Amino acid sequence: MIGEARDFAGKFLDRAAVRGVPVAGIKRQDALLVVSELVTNAVRHAPGLCTLALDLQDGVLEIAVGSPRKPPTAARPSART
């Protein structure tokens, strides 16, 4: 899963470069390392699948790793009779 995430991020950056999207300030290896670390933490500490989202705007790469599951919600306290 971690290797797949790195490959996905690498292809994302390759496509951006081919399209002439500026990637000022982004070092490819740094971005791939961050992806690896985030996905590794998600795999280790959160059961199940994780999601990887990448966004490149104005030369800034945003990397987000999360869970596709709905976050837990607080239960309503039960009324005592």
Please describe the structure with a list of short key phrases separated by commas or semicolons.
alpha+beta; 43% helix
- The amount of beta strand, in percent, is 15-25%
Query: What distance separates the N and C termini?
Result: 51 Å
| Order of secondary-structure elements | HHEE
Number of strands: 2
Query: How are the strands ordered across the major sheet?
Result: 1-2
Structural category is alpha+beta
Measured as a percent range, the helix fraction is 40-55%
Tell me the radius of gyration.
18 Å
The best one-word shape is elongated
Overall pLDDT confidence: 82
Number of helices: 2
Largest sheet: 2 strands, antiparallel
Low-confidence segments: none
What does this structure look like?
The protein is of the alpha+beta class and 81 residues long. It is 43% helix and 17% strand. The chain contains two helices and two strands. The protein has a two-stranded antiparallel ribbon. Strand 1 and strand 2 (60-66) form a beta hairpin. Helix 1 (2-18) packs antiparallel against helix 2 (28-45). The longest helix is centred in the middle third of the chain and has 18 residues, at 28-45. It is elongated. The relative contact order is 0.19.
